[in-house]
């Protein structure tokens, strides 16, 4: 089988896997979650002050209940703006006073949707619901027909992997683009960096689904894939956050008890394992959330001291996914059916 035929086989398997995923309940569950979030954004609105500054400008302002804000003459002389207005949800049923201006309110909602709903809950939910794809595919009764064909085994595994990624890409795109359009139509604020959530979400899922594929090849158990991939995600997150916390502590106090072997060990684990916390930091930076929300001290410290390298972090995490998928393919080749 030549290279073109192998790529064709991978494409056919990816398409077939995507269609299988779409036909199952997971498609409609995720689509329902997207519809609810889009409806929430369509019910949003901003009353009162739309902006307190021109784009790129950070004005001085006072909260509406500040004593000085009650004196119009002093405000007129100082040129300081006063926060007013509110963010409404559910067509006015829920009202949230603006802490700054409309753009900040929309950023708050976007950050909650991208970082909370999609990047954390969404990725874990997708891992749970897709964990059974590969074990069912690798069941000897189901795969015997495919193994009888001349297609290399690694092509079969890669095709199924890419098909699941295509399914997640479509769902992530529907969620992000749908909520972005809904918020833009309702508020008139179009923040295109929010669309960067799509590649962040896809990379986050691809890394840990690669580990789930390795578990599937080794154990052919949906239960092992579910709990194993979630436990591995938690381990990586703790190693990622722990590394940043200890590095921040060492920068704060060079004589810290953490300076030494433990730091070296965590640094090695940090660069070997995937970095879900780093992906969250990058998503936060893409949404410019740091200008409106305080990051954990450890995150802000490693960035301030140049100990956070986003592109190297992405490259190392993506390399881990490639290595794990390669290991899964090798194990699949060696498995006797």
How would you describe this protein?
The chain is mostly helical. The strands form 2 sheets. Strands 1-4-5 form a 3-stranded antiparallel beta sheet. Strands 2-3 form a two-stranded parallel sheet. The protein is globular and about 65 Å long. α3 (72-78) links the parallel β2 (61-62) and β3 (81-82). The two termini are 21 Å apart. The chain has 13 helices and 5 strands. The chain has helices at 3-23, 25-42, 72-78, 102-130, 133-138, 140-147, 153-187, 197-219, 222-252, 261-272, 276-286, 297-304, 310-334; strands at 45-47, 61-62, 81-82, 86-89, 94-97. The protein has one domain.
In a few lines, what is going on in this structure?
With 337 residues, the chain is mostly helical.
Q: How big is the Rg?
A: 24 Å
The helix-strand sequence is HHEEHEEEHHHHHHHHHH
- Structure class: mainly alpha
* Global geometry: globular
Q: How are strands sequenced across the largest beta sheet? A: 1-4-5
Regions with little confidence, pLDDT below 50 for 5+ residues: 59-69
Total DSSP helices: 13
Which percent range fits the helix content? 55-70%
Q: What composes the largest sheet?
A: 3 strands, antiparallel
Fraction of residues in β-strands = under 5%
Mean pLDDT across all amino acids: 79
- What is the terminal separation in angstroms? 21 Å
Query: How many beta-strand segments?
Result: 5
Number of domains as seen in the coordinates: 1
Topology, element by element:
Elements: H1 3-23, H2 25-42, E1 45-47, E2 61-62, H3 72-78, E3 81-82, E4 86-89, E5 94-97, H4 102-130, H5 133-138, H6 140-147, H7 153-187, H8 197-219, H9 222-252, H10 261-272, H11 276-286, H12 297-304, H13 310-334
Parallel strand pairs: 2-3
Antiparallel strand pairs: 1-4, 4-5
